[in-house]
Amino acid sequence: MGLNIRLDKFIIFKFGLLNNVFGKNMVSYVSIALIMLLASISQSMYEDAYFIQEATLTVYRDGVVHVKIIASVNETEAFIIIPLLSSRISGLLIFDETGDLLNYDIEENNAVIYSLGATEVTLEYYVDDLTSKEAGLWTITLSAPFDLLIVLPENATIMYLSAVPSSISIEKDTIRLDLYPGDWEIIYELPTLPPSPPSPPPSQPPSAVEYSGYYYMLAAAIATICIVASTLLLIRRRSRIRNLRSEEIEVLRFLKDRGGRVLESELRERFPNIPRTSMWRLIRRLEKQGIVRVRKVGLQNLVEME
Fold first, then answer.
1. What range does the domain containing 8 cover?
2. What is the separation, in whole angstroms, between the first and last Cα of the chain?
3. Which of 13, 28, 176, 280 shows its CA 20 to 30 Å from the CA of 54?
4. In sequence order, which residues have a C-beta less than 8 Å from that of residue 45 and are 6 or more positions away?
5. Residues 86, 130: contact at Cβ < 8 Å?
């Protein structure tokens, strides 16, 4: 942007000199040539800033869409601008190839990402206004700014496509559509979930002797299962604790004192000495080890002990 402003001022100054020397007709021809040159330079700089490797839209049964975009980035660029698919997004995360979070601003339907030094940028967010349901049929309406892969819910049946996709494939009962840039409308139908099976009819009560033997066998089996499960759980917890870092242990103690569940913002307030990105990576490590789980509550993350 700074380069464009400097070039504009340079062009205006030169136009004044040319106007005095060669006259208005000559200046008109030269101005048109310089404007075309400036446009080509700006377009080239924009296209070289990043390249979309992958853009996947996973559609859930309730109509919510998870968007994941991976872009190769020119590490010398101070920032890149990637268009968003909606103005109503939630849970936006942007990080580089090492998993570190990147700073960004939202301008209209674009994410301005400050990516200096990064070679790969990943965006993940959720959208709830790309889909609508009417008369039992779901409709996806979107304008694709680049090539997209749409993964429909399991067992979906396509009823209408506004154009022929680049390719259609089926993987594990899910339809996958490769779309090229442009406006798209996709209508699909989902099967009704099967009703729960009826409860079996009551059987004749066993005799006292049969009931007593069955009771002792069941109690012995339950006791054995509890002992084995408790032993495995104890061994697993001890092995996890040995590998935990000091700050992870402190976070888990705070979680236990708060009843095993806190908001991520509460953790950042309780541990101000841990940077925001370090706290995010700490929670991700605990989640990968199966010690905690993270789920969305509104616009915030809720951290719970397993």
1. 2-43
2. 49
3. 280
4. 3
5. yes
Same domain? 299 vs 272: yes
Query: What is the distance between the alpha carbons of residues 125 and 89, in angstroms, rounded to a whole number?
Result: 6
The CATH number of whichever domain residue 176 belongs to comes to 2.60.40.1730
Choose one of 189, 210, 228: the last residue of a domain. Answer: 189
Selection from 54, 57, 60, 55 nearest residue 296 by Cα: 60
Q: Model pTM?
A: 0.52
Quote the CA–CA distance of 34 and 11 in Å, as a whole number: 8
Evaluate whether residue 290 is within a structural domain.
yes
Q: Please, which residues have CB within 8 angstroms of residue 85's CB and are 6 or more apart in sequence?
A: 57, 67, 109, 127, 130, 142, 143, 145
Plot region of 275 (φ>0 → left; ψ -120 to 50 → alpha; else → beta): beta
Tell the burial category of 200 from Cβ atoms under 10 Å away from its Cβ (0-12, 13-18, 19+): exposed
Please check whether residues 160 and 115 belong to one and the same domain: yes
The total number of structural domains that make up the chain? 3
Contacting residues for 88 by C-beta, under 8 A, at least 6 apart? 127, 128, 129
- In our burial notation (b when 16+ CB lie closer than 10 A, e otherwise), range 154-189 reads eebeeeeeeeebeeeeeeeeebbbebeeeebebbbe
pLDDT over 90 (residue 163): yes
Q: Is pLDDT larger for residue 41 or for residue 271?
A: 271
Extract the tokens encoding 180: 């090229």
Q: State residue 254 phi and psi, 5-degree precision.
A: -65, -40
For residue 123 the two structure tokens come to 């965006």
Task: Write the DSSP symbol of residue 124.
Answer: E
Strand partners, 73: 50
Tens digit of pLDDT for each residue in 222-269? 877 766 565 556 556 555 555 678 888 889 889 888 888 899 889 989
Could you tell me how many residues make up the chain?
Answer: 306
